[in-house]
Write a structure and sequence with these properties.
single chain, Chitobiase, domain 2, TIM Barrel, 8-stranded parallel β-barrel, 7-stranded mixed sheet, binds acetamide
């Protein structure tokens, strides 16, 4: 697919981020009458509703499927001829008398209607004429949101999902359990949210978690926007909140409290006890029922193995299974759960620490500690989600990582063709130790849109940064009208006043030297 030779921003006032891969602009506009008629096949109904909702918010009355496609102003249809670019591709044609969006999948139609919304001029209520053929370079385009350290209320999550959909991101990685809280209701184990859904320093008695109804609402909201959710249930470390609820899941079975501080803690699930695996499988059975998506993230990062070294149960497991050491025990743990998920039709994902042992084939690796680990995982044959701290950690202050840094990220830098193929895409990570709900949106946006541009276009097909920045400014302005609160983009915009977020980017991540 060739690049657009004429940058879209010089032709229309809207902001399409990421930039469509091919666009041919023509003189003239499509200006519909008072009500707009839209027609779509059954498979494109979610996209149709999205368009109807988006235009409705701008005061455009839309009538859907009340007419034959021939009489509609906007038609969503299957492609008349082959459409290059994979399952998410779409072709958009805006004629003087109407709009056609061709695609093969719900995702393709969803991206097409997002571009239709982006191109709509709210003042004149018309569209520029164009032929676009568009598709992403990377299939996995996402963001992690940590809802443990600080709880994130449902309306804020929905606004963030809107901000993701606005730039065609398609994976919401939802970090739901950690040392400082357990935030997902599990009906079979009510103490997880009775005791675990509150940091011990949080306002007295306030338990904050997502009920099954909340989760169903968020799943529905994300699905309508073409976003898959990847729930993360952390194990075998980052488990203090669970152990505070059920001490017999731990090695020493002494009571621990849900943590009120940040940092690393030694409380792991007991890898020697079968009832621990039974517990986790019961939890994951509810998770799988709630999330109708293909992936579950098991965490597996930053597991301090000291407790396992002096736990008789863990040592007995090592012996019985013929394992070399505690690192092999972690692989045993993770693989046993990954196999359970596989039997339930789900792919398990782990942070890059799983490479310290032998992860089972079929797992995916999320590389976070260092960009060199992307290659390491790919060369070992695992599909990789790239999230290196240096480019993707949005909990870092703007002085550490700004829009220009994110935009400079190349997920496949230095990889040969075979390894590059293993990189499915990337995620930004929004951890919330130092950021609460009041600051979240402006920490995430607009930096996240920089990642979206890289993943859609590919690092080698980017426009000059200044041009991208001008588009992002337009997108930020439009997003503000829709209720989102994007923050500043560049470190020079906050010079001296940048107090939000972490500033330890130059400290190496723990244990990375074992791998890289
Ligand atoms: C991580 O940042 N511990 C994955």
């Amino acid at each position: 697919m060739s690049d657009s030779s004429s940058p879209a921003s010089s032709v229309f006032p809207g902001a399409v981020v990421p930039r469509p891969r091919f666009a041919e602009w023509e003189e003239g506009r499509f200006a519909p009458g008072e009500d707009l008629r839209i027609s779509a096949p059954e498979e494109a109904i979610a996209a149709l509703h999205r368009l109807q909702h988006g235009l409705g918010k701008r005061g455009v009355v839309v009538r859907s499927n009340v007419t034959s496609p021939e009489q509609a102003d906007i038609v969503l249809v299957h492609p008349a001829e082959t459409l290059p670019g994979g399952p998410e591709a779409y072709r958009l044609t805006i004629f003087p008398r109407g709009i056609r969006v061709e695609a093969r999948t719900a995702a393709g139609w969803g991206h097409g209607v997002q571009t239709v919304l982006d191109l709509h001029a709210p003042d004149t209520r018309d569209w520029p004429l164009v032929l676009m053929v568009d598709a992403p370079e990377f299939a996995w385009r996402g963001m992690l949101l940590d809802c443990c350290r600080h709880f994130v209320p449902k309306p804020v999550i929905c606004r963030i999902l809107d901000g993701m959909a606005a730039s065609k991101l398609n994976r919401f990685h939802w970090h739901l359990t950690d040392d400082q809280a357990w935030r997902i209701e599990i009906k079979r184990y009510p103490r997880l949210t009775e005791v675990g859904a509150r940091r011990t320093d949080e306002s007295a008695g306030r338990r904050q978690f997502y009920s099954h109804d909340d989760i169903r609402d968020i799943v529905e909201y994300a699905t309508q926007r073409g976003i898959d959710i990847v729930p993360e249930i952390e194990m075998p470390g980052h488990a203090t909140a669970a152990l505070a609820c059920y001490p017999d899941l731990g090695c020493h079975q002494v009571p621990v409290e849900v943590k009120a501080q940040w940092g690393l803690f030694p409380h792991n699930y007991n890898a020697g006890k079968d009832h621990v695996f039974e517990f986790l499988e019961n939890v994951l059975s509810e998770v799988v029922d709630l999330f109708p998506f293909p992936y579950v993230h098991l965490g597996a990062d930053e597991c301090d193995k000291a407790q396992w070294r002096d736990c008789p149960d863990c040592q007995a497991r090592i012996k019985a299974e013929g394992l070399a050491d505690e690192t092999a025990l972690q692989s045993y743990f993770v693989n046993r759960i990954a196999a359970f998920l596989q039997r339930h039709g789900r792919t398990a994902i782990g942070w890059d620490e799983i490479l310290e042992g032998e992860p089972m084939s079929g797992m995916m690796v999320q590389a976070w500690r260092d960009e060199r680990i992307i290659k390491l995982a790919a060369d070992r044959g695992f599909p990789v989600i790239a999230s290196p701290r240096r480019f993707c950690y949005l909990d870092m202050a703007l002085s550490q990582i700004d829009l220009r840094d994110v935009f400079s990220f190349d997920p496949t830098a230095g990889l040969d063709e075979a390894s590059a193929k293993m990189v499915v895409g990337a995620e930004a990570n929004m951890w919330t130790e130092y950021v609460d709900e009041s600051e979240l949106e402006h920490m995430i946006f607009p930096r996240l849109w920089g990642l979206s541009e890289v993943l859609w276009c590919g690092a080698h097909n980017l426009m000059p940064f200044d041009e991208f920045k001008a588009r992002v400014d337009l997108l930020s302005a439009r997003a503000r009208v829709d209720g989102l609160q994007p923050g500043p983009a560049l470190r020079e915009d906050v010079a001296g006043k940048d107090r939000k977020g972490r500033t330890d980017l130059d400290e190496p991540a723990p244990g990375v030297e074992k791998l890289a």
